[in-house]
């Protein structure tokens, strides 16, 4: 087997467009944060906490629908009728998720005054969530069409759609937050309305682009039972729960930070957004890995699986160490893009060294999870993330970062130290799991 031709080039061919897609996706949150932060740090704190409330819901839905990617990738040799059945099941699941998501996010909006201590921040978060809830169906169906295209390794429609989404969201954010002409100044809550409006524009574009490339998306005569659709939902649930456990943990840490003051919230939200933007590339590599390993599994190419796994680990380590160096070396310049408040700036800059180390281990665990998903091993990442985040990171972050246990004083730095240690444990455990599964297959063969 030629490593460059058969392993590295196919991964890069998939990963590079996925990197553009993931960066566009992450940039949406970064743009909202930057626009709100430059408007006023209270608005930054409000939409930051609001985002931490609705993002886990959407990430859960994304994980559930992601099961379509390895399934469609493994069905490339099957008839269009069989793929059409799977897509119809996905549409039914997306419909159920849209209704549930709208109701749940509206309820979360009403809970803001009880969940957030600062009432000014709570009011901004509430208004923001009310707007976002109306955009959930558009986001869910856009994600469905994306994963159908991704499963076919057709990434151009996704890139075009996310570019349109990014331009629309950025333009609408600037107009709605700051006001222009007859449009009133809405403050940070305007980013929620911008997200909702952009979601439907992007959903329409995604459907038009993908349906031209994949005719099965337009098939309407295929009848699928509710039981089969429910089965697809159950298969995707472990992926969704794994992702939501991570996002919920980060949201919980944000609420821990909120007990340390509005400026601590703002600083924490800035570094979280920077981290989420940088981790998009390992996520893209992980998605490419899932597709390639699922392909090798379908063709029983065992050497391809192990070579792919080793290759992506090397790529990920090179990238993560490079980004860690940039974060540490240019921390002041990067953070100043988000805020001009001196206190928020100093706290955020102080956190950047922890973020750099966190990103190295988070990149490793992200790619290891992609290897396991490609092997249709969905439960192992779930159990490891559950243990590391909810039995290690969350309890220790609260006791040490908020309550000041074993510390001179409570501060947000301690929360990030605990987070970094916990994610390193997750990276080690997931790497061991993926190695055991890949080499275990090889041993069976021999």
UniProtKB/TrEMBL annotation:
Residues annotated as transmembrane: 53-72, 93-116, 128-148, 160-183, 189-210, 237-258, 270-295, 307-331, 382-402, 414-436
Pfam families recorded: MatE
Please, which domain of life does this record's source organism belong to? Answer: Bacteria
Q: Which UniProt keywords are given for this protein, alphabetically ordered?
A: Membrane, Transmembrane, Transmembrane helix, Transport
Molecular functions per Gene Ontology? antiporter activity; xenobiotic transmembrane transporter activity
Q: Which GO terms describe its cellular component?
A: plasma membrane
Q: Which InterPro entries match?
A: MATE_fam (IPR002528), MATE_MdtK (IPR050222)
List the protein's name. Answer: Putative multidrug resistance pump
